[in-house]
Amino acid sequence: MTHSLHRRGSTEDLREEIVFIFAPAKGITERGSGPKAKKFLEIMKARGAAHYGDDLTGNVLTLGHSRLVAAAHDITNIHAVFADVEKATEAFQDIVEEDMGVSVVVTGLFDVVHQCCQRTGTGFHTIEHSMGIWGRTEQLPSEQVLEIVTMCGHGLVSVNLVDQVARDVRVGRTTAQEATYEMARQCMCGIFNPVRAEKVLRRLAGE
Amino acid sequence: MKVDPDQCMGCGLCIPYCPVNSIADEGSVVSIDQEMCVECGVCKRSGVCPVDALVEPELAWPRVLRSLFSNPITVHPGTGVAGRGTEELKTNDVTDRFVLGEVGFGVELGRPNMGTSFRDLEKVSMKLAPLGVRFEPKNPVTFLMKDPKTGELQDDVRDERVLTAIIEFTVPESRTLNVLRVLEEVSDEISTVFSLDLINRMPEKGDPPVLAALKDRGYYLAPNGKVCVGIGRRGGEPR
Asked: So what's the ipTM on this one?
């Protein structure tokens, strides 16, 4: 659903982050979309996505690329995150050139997505804004923790896990890279951005 | 999720993985608060238990709702979509679910990372229904309503807890501010949080007019968001 929408972070950090979703529509574009999903995965790998996967199978960090490609079939939604806008734009150019006929969503700063679209001759068809968090916001964790946990829109990276790995990094029990991997592998669909998460985690751990 | 007390050695490695803080250290074993557990499967999938003491029991109605809404690998039988949501804007270039003159809303109860009961969700849906909103028929929450005209949920689901559940609906653009006023009121009456989504079809020129109206009234609109870029085609055939 909207699991790529409410990602939090400074504008500076978000400027380098683009998420793609390959989304076959049930009963409309799903038939025959399996080979296109495989192609989409190949593009994500070739263009250097920071993380990718599909929520029914798992993510590339835990399963590896070949298993994801082998599992892709007609209802597969692919999710991918880039930590470099130039690489993301190249990937998007490939996607558009492949002309798959399957819906694609791009998530990021609207001005960055707009530039991406301009370079590929595409545009905004429908847009979705986050209007923030409402209700008992006083119970939320710190903003830095939120920056990390909202990278997994399914909510599978827990606040306690972030706190624990931050403590572990602080006392030298693990490295920021290992701790980031531990968080990223909980995100089934692969849109958790390990590059930005590591940066935030280092700040959180006081490195 | 349950713990096999004969296997568990009380190491507590699984405790931090729970997104809703439902695992507790009981000394020689850990226990899982069955009321708080949302059956997301994170603790077991993490693979941290050295003795495989976490057990996923077969879930009966209505507890199975916890897994349907919280575990992304569970496909909802009504929507055919994995997890708690729908295709919403993602495929709007081929579905036309969102049209000019209307706005789409998603009220994501329990997000981020707090979880929600359906009792809290119902407080919101029943406040929204009198505004004449059109609850998305393919959304799993709408399946749980006795009557989408009232937003009231089935009696046996209210005490179930999930990681997140989304009330998804469309309204004529002219009622956008009414919806937001109601959401402001009800946000004081619930015990959790919600993340709010706003969906607009793009007009031929410029931005959707409702965005300027919201900015003028001081509503927050994040600088980042989702864009359906319009490259899908019905049938999916090459151009």
From this structure: 0.96
